[in-house]
Amino acid sequence: MSQEKGLNPFEIVQAQFDENARKGNLDKSMQEFLREAEREIQIRIPVEMDDGTTKTFTGFRVQHSTARGPAKGGLRFAANETIDMVRALAIMMTWKCAVVNIPLGGGKGGVACDPRELSERETEKLCRGWVRKVYDLVGPDMDVPAPDVATNPQDMLWIMDEYDTIARSRKPGFVTGKAVGVGGSLGRTEATGYGVIYCVREAFKRLNIDFKGATASIQGAGNNAQYCCEKFTEYGGKVVAMSCWDPKDKKACTYSCEEGIKPEDLFAPGTLDKFGTINPEKAKEFGWKQEDGNAWITKPVTVLIPAALGSAVHKDNVNDIKFDVVKVYAEGANSPTTPEADKVIKEKGVYLIPDFLCNAGGVTVSYFEQVQNNMNYYWPKEEVFEKLNHIMTSAFNDVMDLAEKENLYARDAAYVIAIQRVARAVEGRGWVKTKK
Ligand code: GLU
To answer: What is the pTM of this model?
Structure first.
């Protein structure tokens, strides 16, 4: 997220919350309570590196809300991680779980590190070290981590194992996004990207757009973007561009293909690394054209999907969007649009699917994973997708029906629904007494 207007990422999302709290006439004491996290943890994790030296990493866990259930949200590895970034992402998890109406609160964790610089052994030590430092403040009924930017199912297994080792018990529900066969749910890997495209499908229905002839351009080639590409193509559309980070040249680049990037090429061995970087040699083999990092946003497509990092769309590139062609703007990433860019998107009247609705598929299947862990009984993939589809479709329709009825911007409609649900839980528990 950028520093546009001198605001930091947490202040940006707090401002969005405050505005919607005001619009929805939220009680002042409730607003005061909900605008900050219930608990924030900052830790230092010493890791013995492969060369024998010890490096100490700073980590965070922010538990924004536990009113509707245990705090829930990913653990990220990012070089420039800050407490404000984690606070911003934690509060968004609260609204995300509430808007899809799953019985969970919101949290997020982060470690300031460059994951590409860590060996597998160092990554394992970092994951285990993180658990050791937060152990007594988290747990399956308190706060449940999951994968996020640069963390994956293997990391989640190390996290689970460290927790189990300390607990001297088996608690697979402590962490979600685990590998299948070791407590993971089928379909968790696909969940975020599929959820995005289920929302796009519902938007197309409302706008009378057919997938045949529809095109998409996606920012990112990580887990979310990969499964957006797969589902969009399966529905009959073409993904004509995807971007990614090129660690060698330390810059982003876009790969484009007018006939559509084929998922089987994207998933072919050697095309992607575990961080979602596309191998240029493979791209050449498939006939994908390499362009600059910003090219994805300039494409005259039906749908634009920023599905990588925060603040990808900002005041300096928002006007590169082909507003005369682009019909749907689906925020696959968390907070991909800065406030100034958001104003432009709103003014231009593009059909917005706001982030915390659009990308809620991941946490929804995390919830399913916990349910399956508790039962110790695992569902077939079709059942997971059927349930995910049902939840995403209902949440999408609730938000868009309200937006249409009250003439609200879709982001505001999503906030209204989420804030009301969380406030009801906080009040019901007797934490905040509101003026009747
Ligand atoms: N990191 C994902 C998100 O931002 C998933 C969180 C989860 O599954 O708990 O929604």
So the answer is: 0.96
